[in-house]
Structures are given as C-alpha cells and as structure tokens.
Amino acid sequence: MMGERGLGRILLLLLPFLPIALGAFVGINIGTDVTNLPEASDIVAVLKSNEITHVRLYNADAHMLKALANSGINVMVGVTNEEVLGIGEYPATAAAWINKNVAAYLPATNITAIAVGSEVLTAIPHAAPVLVPAMNNLHKALVASNLNFVVKVSTPQSTDVIPKPFPPSAAAFNSSWNSTLYQLLQFLKNTNSSYMLNAYPYYGYTQGNGIFPLDYALFRSLPSVKQIVDPNTLFHYSSMFDAMVDATYYSIEAMNFSGIPVMVTETGWPWFGGSNEPDATAENAQTFNNNLIKRVLNGSGPPSQSDVPINTYIYELFNEDKRPGPVSEKNWGVFFTNGTSVYPLSLGTSGRITGNSSGIFCVAKQDADSDRLQDGLNWACGQGHANCAAIQEGQPCYSPNTVANHASYAYNDYYQKMQGVGGTCDFQGTAMTTTVDPSYGSCKFTGSSNSSSTVTTPVASAPFSPIGGGSPTSAVLASKLKYVICTISVVLTLL
C-alpha cells in the first residue's frame, strides 16, 4: 500500500495538470488540409502572439505536440476516425496509443483531453458499436498511467444526432442511437467528462429555409416582436448558438442524465463562399466570431443551465484549402498562413485585436455605439483629412463592410498623422489605442511595419470632439488641460 509521502509526491507531480476553474475559455481548432502548412513552431508562434490558450488537434501529430511543449497552451488531441475501430477492439492498441501520443509528451505538453473520432455516429455509423469501448479502453490506459485525473476522454458529435432541436425543451436524440448514446452518457458521467458538441449556426441558418433571421444566427439583438421563445419553458433565446447548446442539454436530460457539461468543440462562420453562398462573407464571419467570443467569455450558460459556462473552440485557425466540397468549406480560417488575421478579431477579455505587434494604433472599440462610430468615421474621412481610399468598395480594406472596421481604419490613419500635433484617439469615446497591429490580409493599417503607406503630418487639424457638437479646437485644448491638471496632481502628491 502506498505511503502518504509517496502519494504526496504523485499529487505534487500532478498538480500543474489538474484543471483549474478560471471561467470559460475560447480555444481554436487546427486543421491540416492546408497547402503549405506552416512549420509547427510557426503555428505555435501564431497561437502565442494572439494569446490563444486552448487548441484542439484532429490527430496526435508529433511535431505539433513537441512544439507545444512548455507553451502553457492546453491541448486536446484527437483519435482519428480511422483509428477508432482498432482502439475499440483491442485494449492493447489503446494502451499503445496513450503511451505514444499522451504519456510521452506529459508534463511538458499540457494535454488535457482526448477527442475520440469526429462525429462518429453520423460520419462512420458502422463504427458506433465500438465507439464507447474505444473510450473505455483509452480511459483504462490513462488509469494505468495515473493520468485519468489529468486527461479527460470524450467524443465530438454533430447536432445531427438531434433531429428536431427546436424548441430546445422538446429536443431528444435520434432514437436509433439510443443504446450507444446511453453508454456514452454513462461513461461521461462516471468519468466527470464533458459532452462534446459541434454546433454550427451557419448551417442552422442557411439550411433553415428562412425560419430564423440572420441576426439570430450572428448573436445580434432582436426586436421584441421577433425574439425566439421556447413555448414550453418561455425561455428567451438570444442566439441560435444558445438554443443548440440547450437542445443538447435537454436531449441529455431526456435520457435521465444530468450534471454533464456541454463543451462546444467546433463552431464558426465561413468568410468566403461561392455565388450560391451569399451568407459566407467576411462581415458575417467577423460579426459571428467576435460576438461568440463575447458570449462565451461572459461565463454564463444557456437558459436552462445558466450557471454552466460554454467552453468553446472556434473552427478554425487556417483556411483548409484542400478540403473537398463547396467554396465555403475551404474558408473558415481566422488567420492566413503568414500569421495575419483574415479580419479583425478580438480574442480575449482585454479586447485586443488580432494582428502583429508594431507600434501604437488607434482602433474602434468593439462595443461602441454604431451611430457614434458612423459620426466618427464621417469626421475622420472629412474634417480629419484621413485617407479613406482603402475602405472604398473594391479596395483592400473595404471588407468586412462594417462601420466598426471602416472606422478603425479611418481613426488610425487620422491618429498616425495627427498625434504629433495634438490629435487624440478618442472619437467620442468610441476609440482606443492598441499595440497590436490591426492589419489583416492585404489590408495594411498606417503605421504597420509592413505598410507601404508613409505617415505625413499635414497642417494642424483637430481631432474629433470627445464631446458631441464641440469645436475640434476645444478638444485639443481639453486634452492639453487634462494633461496639465494631471501633472499638477502628481506634483502636489510628491510635495
């Protein structure tokens, strides 16, 4: 029998890997069907520079697992669909898989979960009978290595296993999978693991024949007459995402299980599509993902489980241009392979925008009022003499065609030219400075290290008044007065 001292040593070794509840997180999926996929070390550099703390790999690639060592990034590794059958049939195969792909990399690489297959029930239904045995075999191998409290095992399923997800309170799993799903839920309950869900409001909207409005899919607020309400519970659903997650909770409840959290292992929105895919736009993708991040990081759950955060992984890091199917299938990435973002994206609680660090930039606040942003944009491109050619239709910074995106470009162009003569980054409280270069794709912001534009200082022109209707000159004076007052306060404090 192990002594207390020996047990203490093991607990100390395991301590860095025990999951710590620090609120909800947003991670990202890394697909590999990419032409000229960057080196693993370069991919990790992109993750770290954008403060991405959780990643999901679709396999157990040795190069990625080595590159992620000592990065502080939490890693979910994947058992491929091709591997499920062998692992489900042979415990020795499962043990070998754990030794090779998990135990060999811990503790340097912080592997916290194993995703067994991808949508096995709908993608390879013939493997359904061995899905839960495969999970059990992997879990037993983790137990044998004393890693079962460190690494959790689950399996991502699509919303297709729920034939009628609305209203959520009436949702139930497809009865043809009852036996497998019961075993799956029992396994998750016994091992304190999460149900992994792939939830795509993009498909829910585009395949919904106009039943739901686009704003509902994009997390935009709906007028009271259009709000989506479950007639059985009278719960209001502010987004299709929440409804999909809640439909899963109710489906789990219908099988007499509770206390199993739902984790969203895939969600996102394509930023480009074919002529028959009008909703696959950069504007919609930016809106969806930025609103998704805000939604998840507020730490609440869907209406029926409001106190359970919805940990979520965005699909996906890079465009997988080698994937078959429609044009949109190849354009879900939020970064290009050179590390620049496809569109401005706020990935964390600080509101920072994705991009490469280079100097100081002035950008629109993510939660700024659209009318005030439009006023600021109009002023910057007019009286402010900002060069707004790049945000005109057909030009590199026109898309995403949003007021916030255009305002960021105009604000920054004005700020780079005018900060030396008193220009501020305020614009009625709709702007903020950032050290992260907001350039994306071929859209280069003034002041960027890779921008071809030069910053010239024209004759002094005033910044947009921080007080609506005030004269531009008064804004400069107010800014200088604030500086003088601050300086006096510091002197008095020292005295």
Key terms:
single chain; 495 residues; alpha/beta; TIM Barrel; 2 domains; nine-stranded parallel beta sheet; two-stranded antiparallel sheet; 15 helices; 13 strands; globular; glycoprotein; Glyco_hydro_17_plant; X8; membrane
Tally of DSSP β-strands? 13
Uncertain regions spanning at least 5 consecutive residues: 1-21, 452-495
Fourth CATH level, the homologous superfamily of the largest domain: Glycosidases
How far is the N terminus from the C terminus?
68 Å
Which CATH C-level class of the largest domain is it? Alpha Beta
Number of helices: 15
Strand line-up of the largest beta sheet = 5-4-3-2-1-11-10-7-6
Strand content: 5-15%
Largest sheet: 9 strands, parallel
Number of domains: 2
Indicate the overall shape.
globular
- Name the helicity range: 25-40%
Could you state the order of secondary-structure elements as H and E? HEHEHEHHEHHEEHEHHEEHEHEEHHEH
Give the CATH topology of the largest domain.
Answer: TIM Barrel
